[in-house]
Amino acid sequence: QKEVEQDPGPLSVPEGAIVSLNCTYSNSAFQYFMWYRQYSRKGPELLMYTYSSGNKEDGRFTAQVDKSSKYISLFIRDSQPSDSATYLCAMSWYSSASKIIFGSGTRLSIRP
Amino acid sequence: GAVVSQHPSRVICKSGTSVKIECRSLDFQATTMFWYRQFPKQSLMLMATSNEGSKATYEQGVEKDKFLINHASLTLSTLTVTSAHPEDSSFYICSAYWDAGPKDEQYFGPGTRLTVT
Questions:
Q1: Does residue A30 belong to the interface with chain B, where contact is any CB pair within 8 Å?
Q2: Which of A96, A102, A106 is best to mutate for the B interface (most B CBs within 10 A)?
Q3: Whole-angstrom distance, CA of residue A106 vs CA of residue B28
Q4: What are the residues whose beta carbons fall under 8 Å from the beta carbon of A23, sequence distance 6 or more?
Q5: What is the reported pLDDT for A52?
Q6: How many angstroms from the chain centroid is the CA of residue A3?
Q7: In chain B, what residues touch A10 (CB-CB under 8 Å)?
Q8: Rounded distance, CA B74 to CA B96, Å?
Q9: N or C: which end of chain A has fewer CB within 10 A?
Q10: A68 touches chain B (CB under 8 A)
């Protein structure tokens, strides 16, 4: 069993839709949860991070962590074609100074 | 700020040769640098972690004699793939951690696409 499971998609939605991306994990020792966005043939860029269960909002993005279920989500409101990319969930034992375990990524396409 | 560059962006080499990839933090000092490998439609897999002036720590299954990592300064780390074979063809991405930075974040480079023929 992989430590982090993520549906690879692809996921295609119309512009303006709400997008929900999810990951599950097996290691309850993970304490730091992240979402990265990666455009084709580029390095990933950090979108959001959180240390705790609950919701964290940043503009059109909301990250949700449920440690009891070992489940994390990223919601994108009012999706735009520029949001089309691969989204990677990631987690670590205590911070970005240590090893990060990535999900396999979900390819998202926003149709104009 | 917090820009990481990689050079070259893509390289093609013949089987059996060695190739060096550079990773630089342009505007900060990186106490720790990480090297990842990403195969098509797969996730980033950590290969090794290096701290400036120390030997790199390799992940299980990564051959340290094949993937040589040098982190000689706080702004430069190099990955040398020795005696490359076609199965080493992949997207290699480095990241740098800035412990004095504003966020707890690894800053990723743009990646290097290696093709071994």
A1: no
A2: A96
A3: 31
A4: A4, A5, A6, A71, A72, A73, A89, A103
A5: 81
A6: 15
A7: none
A8: 10
A9: N
A10: no
**Cross-chain CB nearest to A95 (options B42, B104, B111):** B104
Low-confidence ranges of chain A (pLDDT < 50): none
Considering only CA atoms, give the Rg of chain A.
Answer: 13
From residue A76, alpha-carbon distances to A46, A69, A79, B5, B41 in Å are: 15, 21, 6, 29, 22
- pLDDT by residue for chain B (117 residues), tens only, comes to 789 999 999 999 999 999 999 999 999 999 899 999 998 888 899 999 999 888 899 999 999 999 999 998 999 999 999 999 999 999 999 999 988 888 888 999 999 999 999
> Mind telling me how many Å the CA of A2 is from chain B's nearest CA?
11
On chain B, the residues whose CB falls within 8 A of the CB of A48 are none
> Are the CB atoms for B42 and B98 separated by under 8 Å?
no
What pLDDT score was predicted for residue B104?
82
